[in-house]
Amino acid sequence: MVSLEKMVRLATEGRFDAADKSPNPGTPGDIDLRKVRALGAGTKYDVCGSSASTREVEDGAGRIGDVLIAGLCHAFAPDGRCVSLFKTLYTNSCRHQCRYCPNSSAGRGGAPVFAYTPEELARITVNLYRGNYIEGLFLSSGVGGDEDTVMEQMLESVKLLRTKYRFMGYVHLKILPGASREHVKQALELVDRVSINVESPSRSRMSELSGTKDYENDIIQRQRYVRDILDKSRANAAAPAGQTTQFVIGAAGESDEEIFDRMVYEYGELSVKRAYFSSFSAVGGTPLEGRCSQPRWREHRLYQMDWLYREYGLEASEIRHAFDENGFIGNSDPKARIARATLSAPVDPNIAGYRELVRVPGIGPRSAYRIVNVRRSEKLWKGRQLAKLGVRMRNAAPFLRLNGWATGTLDRWLQ
Amino acid sequence: MRVPEDFLRLLSLHGDCTASLLERAAPLRPSDLEFPTDPELVRIRKMVYSVVGEFFAMCGMVRLKALGDFALYGYLKPRHDVGPDVCAFLAGRFPGTIIALGNSARSWTALYKGQKVSHATGTSLESTIESLKALLSCPGGTGGEPVERLWETYYWSQYAKERRNLRQFHQFMPKKYLVASGLKVESNTGCASLDDFR
Q1: Contact state of A370 with B35 under an 8 Å Cβ cutoff
Q2: What number is the ipTM of this complex?
Q3: B71-75 and B116-122 as β-strands: parallel, antiparallel, unpaired?
Q4: A85-138 pLDDT, tens per residue?
Q5: What whole-number distance in Å separates Cα of residue A79 and Cα of residue A63?
Q6: What are the chain B neighbours of A49 within 8 Å (beta carbons)?
């Protein structure tokens, strides 16, 4: 314990040393709140589920922020989604004509066009960060007149944050479709994570959504740039949290299987760390305003499949059992459908291996790990024992053999 | 979530922890609490998780206002004794800046400088702020209201009405945390109140 006097002396002793102190960003009193609202709302449907990074933050007075703690949420909106990053567009002006997008030239109508300056954006970010409202910045944008100019402005904003304000918090930058390789390289050196939204699973589906974006050249080729630059760079030197992507679900009538196939390609060939899904919502004023919005459960089921693939280690060929003949999952647990198709006999938790256990509905990687550990010292012969280890017995029971008995053989086929 | 190595220290921070409970927990190892079946061990584990949960939530939900260039302060009234830990965590984010947190009864102050955290405790947050104002020769707080307005504008811009899900909102932002961190903007869930019909 020290006295307040000593603490104040310690805090102020380097006050005239410019290197020891980041510049005061001032108050954001003169910033146009209409702009903040419009550019914030422009990213409402962008998903960012992470603010974790392995970037090393140099110690020293004067820096602002760090990335030491993962998954810190600062607020949740009444829609239940985490609001942890200052998620904003740089500008809502866009020459692309994406038919679902309220920022596109086809969907904006007479809505006013706004753009930040790099200094404004940096000041808002630092002010919100100092108030402990956010964990960092998520910067996206419309492409304006041309993507290179806007990309330069976005990079300038991040440079200001990193150098002038010595901001060491998390930064996620959207790479604009068609951005140059040099801009992609610069972005990777400055930020923690980059993303390029593929939006749709194939070139033909993209052509239904946008007449101006070249799927292969504007999007997939930029993802390859990111992959190649990250492959060549030293560990943690460039965008340590890697690249991610996002799909708009159901805007072009695509099936879940098409999305799944593209997702597997993105993970395998383009080293994408995560794929995010956003159900299509019909926005007034856009060419697709009359189309039905997609139910949220569809997004949820796709996340479940993604989880089975990435975290549970199921093969793509196994997961395909979850699709119906039209390539849709439907609103039922995909793991149960896969288990019904692939598990030939009830699983005995006392002898089954980890790989077999995680394939049983109601048993996740953590509970499978616990089962494997606990059964070394005690025999598992009651459902209650498994429930204590985190197994959801309601889902798991039909697929388990406990104490020599398989339970609920009929339940197994009923949902 | 795995039981942390320093679970005894965390247990001692719990609002309902007693000396006898600490004594009984002293010989335990984290692995003893990993899959407990004994009711007391289950209770201890729950208490440890409750402290960890509050610490984690408060690190994100406490809002800070600037007091000149060298200090940030904010309201915090936790159920467990996590004040010093939250204060130290935030101090680590802003090296060279004094962080003062507290409420009308207690306050905690921390400063991270030279890879070391200095701590101080005090009575009310108000008196700590007054002392800091005097010591820093700083007449008043700056930047609090404009930043709050900025946040409020941004926060509501992110709300997708068609995805409204108050159940999930309350699951992640339970009332106990809203009260402990004194959040105002986020406490308004956009529900209609009687005032709206007057």
Answers
A1: yes
A2: 0.93
A3: unpaired
A4: 999 999 999 999 898 888 887 777 778 899 999 999 999 999 999 999 999 999
A5: 34
A6: none
